[in-house]
Structure formats: C-alpha cells, structure tokens
Amino acid sequence: MRTAEVKRRFLAHFEAAGHRVAAGAPLPADDPTLLFVNAGMVPFKPYLLGQRTPPGPRMTSVQKCVRTLDIDEVGKTTRHGTFFQMNGNFSFGDYFKEEAIALAWDLVVKPVADGGYGLDADRIWATVYRDDDEAYALWRDRIGLPEARIVRRGKADNFWSMGVPGPCGPCSELFYDRGPAYGRDGGPEVDEDRFLEFWNLVFMQYERGEGSGKEDYPVLGELPSRNIDTGMGLERMAVLLQGVDNLYEIDETRPVLDAAAELTGTAYRTEPDTDVRLRVIADHVRTALMMIGDGVTPANEGRGYVLRRILRRAVRGVRQLGYEDPALPHLLPVARDCMAPSYPELATDFERIASYAYGEEDAFRGTLRQGSALLGRALSGTSGPLPAGTAFRLHDTYGFPIDLTVEIAAERGLDVDVDGFRRLMAEQRRKARQDARAKKTGHADTGLYRSLLDAGGPTDWLAHDTLTAEAT
Ligand code: ATP
Ligand code: MG
Ligand code: MG
Ligand code: MG
Predict the structure, then answer these.
(1) Which residues are in the Alanyl-transfer RNA synthetases family profile domain (predicted)?
(2) Are residues 327 and 198 in the same domain?
(3) Residues 119 and 234 in one domain
(4) Range of the domain at 321
(5) Which pLDDT belongs to residue 444?
(6) Which residues contact 13 (CB under 8 A, 6 or more apart)?
(7) Which of 107, 197, 452 has most ligand 1 atoms within 8 Å of its beta carbon, as the pocket-test mutant?
C-alpha cells in the first residue's frame, strides 16, 4: 500500500467516525517554544489548553513533522526520520479512552479490502501506564488482547504532559512484532526495532502541578474536560504495509536512496556503512525539500541553520561515497517526484526550492575547497597531531566539518586533537548560550521549552544544539 493511500485511509476512517479533517500546518511552528512542528498536536494546542474553541469536537489531520533530535538515529535504527508525517485524531471534551482505543484498533486490523490496514492482530502489542487499570482492562476485555501482550510502563514512557502545569495523562502505545528476523523476542521493552512502535494514544485527563522533567511533578485532580490526542507514524505504518525493512525503503524515500546509489556507483545492501550513508542521504534530501517547500531558507541561525546542516550532511554523504560533483540536481527532483503527489506545491514551486538547495550545495563546495587548502597547509607543516585550534578554526571560519578534518588527516597518517576541538566547541556553545540568555530575558522561559520535550518528544531547540555540537 502506497504511503499516500495509508494517509488517505486514516483520514477516511476518522472522517466516517465524525471527525472534521483539518489541513496540516506548515513545518515552521507558530509556537514560541518550537522551531519546527514535531507532533500532530502542536497546531491543536490552543484547543487542548481550552484557549480557543475548536471548529468541532472531533478532528483529524496529517501533520508534517521535523525532529532533528532524532538525527543521530537516522539510517542506524530502522524507524527514525528527521522528517516524517504524523496522522492524528483528536477529541476535545468528546469521546475518551474506550472510543480512542476502539477507533485505532478497528483501523489497524480492518481488512485491506474493507479500507483498513489489515495488520495481523496476533502480532500487536500495547503498552499502558503503570496505574492505568482502565486502559489495561479495555485492551484485555474490549479488544481481547492477551495479557502477555499488554505491557505496563512507568511515567517516563507512558505518561504525557506539556512540561508545565496544565493537562497531563497516561498514554498507550501500539507496537507491531515484525518477527524474529528483526531481533529478539520479549516485547517492546526488549527490542524496539523488532517491535515497531507505530501509534501513541494520549489520554489527557489530569491536571499537572509544578515540577520538572518527565517524571518529577505531582499529578493533581481530574480535568473538567478530557481530551484525546493520538499520533500514528505514517511512514512506520507504510513500513509495515509495504513489507520493507526500514523507513528509508518505503515508496516516498526509496527512489532517492536508489538515485544516490546509482550516482555514487555503490550498491545498497552490500556494506553496512554504505547503507547508513545512503539512508541518511535519502532522509536528508527529503527533509531539506520539505523544509524549503515550507519557506525555510539556509541561514546561520534558527531554522535556516538546521536546514543548512541537513543539506550539508546530505552533500557530505554523497562525497563520502565517492561522488564529488554537485549531487543535489540529481537527487532533489527524485524526492520531489516522491512527495508531490501528496504535496503538489512542491512541484509548482520547485524552481524556487531547487535554487536554494543547489545554491547551498555550491556554497558548501566552495567552503570545502577553501578549507581543504588551509587544512592541506596545516597538515604539511606538522608531524604530530593536528592542533585543536586549527580544527576549530576550520570549523568556525570555514564551516569545515570535524569528521572531514579527521578523515583527511588520517589519509596523511595524522591524528587530530578531537578532544581539544570538542572542548573549544563546548566553550563556544557556553558563551553563545550566555549571550542568548542575556538577550532572551522576558521571552520564552525554560518551562515553555520543556513543554516541547514532553509534548512531542525531542525538541528542535535541543536538536539545534545537537547539530551544532556534532559539527558536521
Ligand atoms: P520512538 O520511541 O520510536 O522514538 P516516540 O515515542 O518518540 O517514537 P511519539 O512521540 O510517541 O514517538 O510520536 C508518535 C508517533 O510518531 C510514534 O508512535 C511513531 O509512529 C512516529 N514517530 C515518532 N518519531 C518519529 C521519527 N523520528 N520518524 C518517523 N516516525 C516517528
Ligand atoms: Mg517511543
Ligand atoms: Mg511514543
Ligand atoms: Mg522518539
């Protein structure tokens, strides 16, 4: 089943159950705590918080998401993209646990011929919050899931809040057992690649008190109005329904992966490091396409900086696989053709999108050329390890990635003082943070920032930090 069809069926299922279909929001989040929308609920926050009246008590959407904090997982796990799409259904004071569970289950196991996903019910596992006896009983008695496949988990995994006083509640997640070929038996606690998480159902029913983090806060009384917020990973469901190994092999990304293999003269599935690089390229090219499509342009800070890093990583990946000419003109149109059926504006706006992407690749190639000359001089003038200061200057002045410095030095039989480099980077980040804090007084506080962590998982502010830290 094509990814577009997985999406269509989701919306049709919930529309038939009385949900109003909402258009997804653009990737740049209209939210002071976020760089990018990172979960389906983000655009619905004002409704969930009771700040605005929703157009209807039941809504459903497909939301474009970016989670750059997952960047290190990309290509290594089978299930993390920097860009992905989250299908969601929402109830604002309308139905609650029982119907949310039944609606999700029905779609997942309904035969394909009848408009569902037709998953094998015997392979589905559910997790519930430790104390949520109600959800446990619903899975067991209403759905008929055997107790062996209902797992109770603690607050860190199965309790949701926005990180600040406000709504909170238990959640329940659905996992699919892909079988022994994918890893060890024993459920999601044992192997998260074999037991693939594909849907998270959040039951907002309590009031959260002051506190910090994912666990360290009191749960106060019941909310006057209870909400449902769910998120199903569209690509994850596509993985299951297309019978492929990982997220980068579904119909929306595989053609980019294949194009990258062809361009670099490599073969997918022959060598693990090459495979990771090809997957990273496929993921990042698509993410860059979607970001620029939604108006993000390369820059030295904020969203544009995340885009810049993503594009550079893609370009670097291609070079590491041995192709040194401009690569994006070969790859971006392939990503466009994969995504335009769902997002036609990518085709009509492609000239603009491509000019930013190709321009950035050209600039990066220039950077690499200049940096290489400086690096070449430094390397020929030393017999010991390359000093941290040189590596730092290459990075800071030329945007020269540390791993490239290390790689080129290694080709000359030299080490790089990477620890020293990291110390200099950490020092620079500390200073930048101090500056930012000084500037930010009176704006978004860290409580708001936390909300993002709890609400949708990783935050893009953190990811921004991560990207800076890894110095690609
Ligand atoms: P994981 O544990 O696999 O990292 P998560 O628990 O962080 O996922 P949620 O925050 O619960 O994910 O998001 C809801 C759903 O969105 C997940 O069940 C999954 O199907 C999907 N999802 C989350 N992160 C990603 C990602 N990086 N790439 C693709 N799909 C994702
Ligand atoms: Mg999870
Ligand atoms: Mg989850
Ligand atoms: Mg995650």
Answers:
(1) 1-472
(2) no
(3) yes
(4) 253-366
(5) 39
(6) 103, 106, 107, 110, 115, 116
(7) 197
